[in-house]
Amino acid sequence: MILRDRPLVEALLLDSRSPTEYASGHLEGALNVDLSGYRGRLRSAEELDLLEQALADLNGRIGASPDRAVVVYDSGLSTRLSKTAFMLALGGLEVHLWPQGWEPQATLQTPTQPVPTQPWAKLNRDILLTADEVLTQNILLDVREPHEYISGHIPGAKNIPLGALGNGNAPQLGLEPGQEVGIHCRSGARSATAFWLLREQGIKARNYLGSMLEWETEGDLPIER
């Protein structure tokens, strides 16, 4: 969910901006967490289990738990914010994005110290696509720019650049509430933003987190040009 005004009461606040931006002024109680750089192969059950364990360890370190909502804020609906929020949601947390409206309150300059909890995560497979699942996806959107799509894409993927997905225009793109849609980009970051935009419109979006960076390095996956 994308918040339009104030965060939820008693939510765990996470600031996904750079350490320099965080130090210049952040919300009271907010921790500095940026997960946008995640890269990892996710094709085997073992690899998925390792990701779940890594997310459990992260949740424990920052004090996140399934009975407490998480609000992640940043300067606009950036890929940094979107992918950080997606990774937390992938670990089974209730996650909300706060892209604007928080700025006047971001006056604290002393770093917040986390209150650790027991490690916990439950991988949310309903929002994740693996490479092998992509091949069976009925609707797959490539949200890269047209020149990227033309240079090489997953067979059957429809190119709808990220910039075309906002403003509640999913119906104009042939997408309907309740529909399951797979999405990908180059690294899983732009597709994470697309994930939240489509979910806001009732689309059951699933993000292929590995995206083209993974697809192109796997020797058994087809590429269309």
Element string (H = helix, E = strand)? EHEHEHEEHEHEEHEH
The whole-angstrom Rg is 18 Å
Oligomer, anyone? single chain
Counting helices, strands and paired strands, the structural category is alpha/beta
Rough outline? globular
Instruction: Tell me what the CATH architecture of the largest domain is.
Output: 3-Layer(aba) Sandwich
The name of the CATH superfamily of the largest domain reads: Rhodanese-like domain
Gap between N and C termini, in Å? Answer: 36 Å
What is the topology, as strand order, of the major beta sheet?
A: 5-9-8-6-7
The total count of helices amounts to 7
What CATH calls the topology of the largest domain is Oxidized Rhodanese, domain 1
CATH class of the largest domain: Alpha Beta
Work out the strand percent: 5-15%
The figure for the number of domains is 2
Mean residue pLDDT: 95
Strands, total number: 9
